[in-house]
Amino acid sequence: MYEIDIANAEMYLRERHGIAATRVQALSGGVSNVVLRVETAGEPFVLKQSRPQLRTRDAWFSDLDRIYREQEVMQALVDRLPPLTVPRVLFADRENFVFAMSHAPIPNPSSPEGARGRVAVWKESLLAGDIDPAMGERAGRVLGMMHEATARDPGRFGVFRDRTVFVQLRVDPFYRKIQERRPEVADAVQALIDSMMMRQDALCHGDYTPKNMLVHGQGFMLVDYETAHFGDPAMDLGLFLTHLLLKAVRRPGQRSGYFELIEGFWRSYRAEVRCQSLGELEQRGVAHWGAGLLARIDGTSPVDYLPEERRRESVRRLGRLILRGAAPCLGGVLDRCDRELSSLERAAENGVSDAMDARKQGPPLHDAGE
Asked: CATH topology for 117-355?
């Protein structure tokens, strides 16, 4: 495999594809691929190549040919979702595990992102406390449309039943790692794994999180489909809800805004889905929410924005409660979360220092992913 990087990408594009690049920049935010932004005399585009070892604290490997799955899912899904939601594949070099895709629309030049030629990653806005309820609704609508459209067309999307990469990048590092590190919930997590590996209900994106949503004027562009497979849509629900709640844990004083995002997401999702029992789907999604919370604290790829043990322990308490069925519906979970985050907020008001708490624990478990 010819490994592409920022130093040789211009030569690769010129010699292999006859494309004259005027500028190449590395894009950050993920741990599993090389992703480059390429500028040309025409429209910019994104070049992506898979790597066998992920950039995480713990050793983590995955098959290079996951890039094929990503390319094929995008091509199958692009016309099933609103315009500019799925990038268009421009060309592929399967020998070198590379493909190019369309770039997300650049924001207005007067905005900070537009002035830097950047797209706005929703994760960054959420971490900054910039809460847009319309984005929560939009995220629910897009996910509901994806699950509904693909559930109704198993002949087209059933070809994505293989879960090898999903197991490598989600089941093993998230669910099974939690079984090792949190044995008190091992049985509950195993039940989730068994159900998830058996179901063939709809296309599961496998990484439906704010870091993969690039906000633009017409909505958002959804990226990173390498873990997508025809399986259990409840996993997408749980993982997405996990990341909204983790942002609330980081900013407990704004929890009502994050809860509003969660409620708007679920309302919009429900409005799109007809092929599944929503009550059962909600219950299973909530269970995956509990597992996701534990995974993003104690799994292979912990989030890097909650280094303080007091906050991390709050997430663990919520994850255990949810997994054990203490709050099987979304409203019940939010009630529990409100009480937990209220305690965090009071601790901050009473002068319990996050910095002091972090010093007690040593350096944070850093990871480049969400």
From this structure: Aminoglycoside 3'-phosphotransferase; Chain: A, domain 2 (3.90.1200)
